[in-house]
Amino acid sequence: VQLLESGGGSVQPGGSLTLSCAASGFTLAGLAVAWFRQAPGKERLGVATINSYGSVSYADSVKGRFTISKDAAKNTLYLQMNSLKPEDTAMYYCAAVELVGGGTWDDFKSGYWGQGTQVTVSS
C-alpha cells in the first residue's frame, strides 16, 4: 500500500506546476482524497480535497489557482497549481482515507499518506 507523489520542483512566482500522486496496492475509488502542505516551522494544512461523492473543496488561500482532480483509470490524484506565490512554498503531501460523505481535514490523520514532494516558489 503506497502513495507516491511527484512533480514538485522550483518555479518562479506566477508559474505553474502539476503534482501527481500515484496509488498502489489499493484503489482510490470511493475514498476521500486530499492534498496537504507543510511549510518549514508551520503545521500541516489541507489544500484541496475530493470527497467520496466527488465534491471538491479548497482552502481559501488557493481557491481559483489550484485544481484537484483524480484519474480513476490511472489510480492517480493530481494537483494543478497556477499563479504560484512564494507563500505556496512547502512540502506537499497527498492523502486518502475511507470516509463516506463530508468530513474534516483531521479525518485524514487515520488514512494513507505519501512521503511528500517539495515545491519552492522563488525569484
**Terminal-residue CA separation:** 38 Å
Average of pLDDT: 96
Strand content: over 45%
Instruction: Count all strands and give the number.
Output: 11
Q: Please, how many helices? A: 0
The Cα radius of gyration reads 13 Å
Describe it.
- The strands form two sheets. Strands 2, 4, 5, 6, 9, 10 and 11 form a seven-stranded mixed β-sheet that branches. Strands 1-3-8-7 form a four-stranded antiparallel β-sheet, with no helix packed on it.
- The protein is an all-beta fold and 123 residues long.
- Strand 7 and strand 8 (76-81) form a beta hairpin.
- It is built from no helices and eleven strands.
- The termini are far apart.
Task: Please render the helix and strand layout as text.
Blueprint: E1 2-6, E2 9-11, E3 17-24, E4 32-38, E5 45-50, E6 56-58, E7 66-71, E8 76-81, E9 90-97, E10 112-113, E11 117-121
Name its key features:
0% helix, 48% strand, 123 residues, four-stranded antiparallel beta sheet
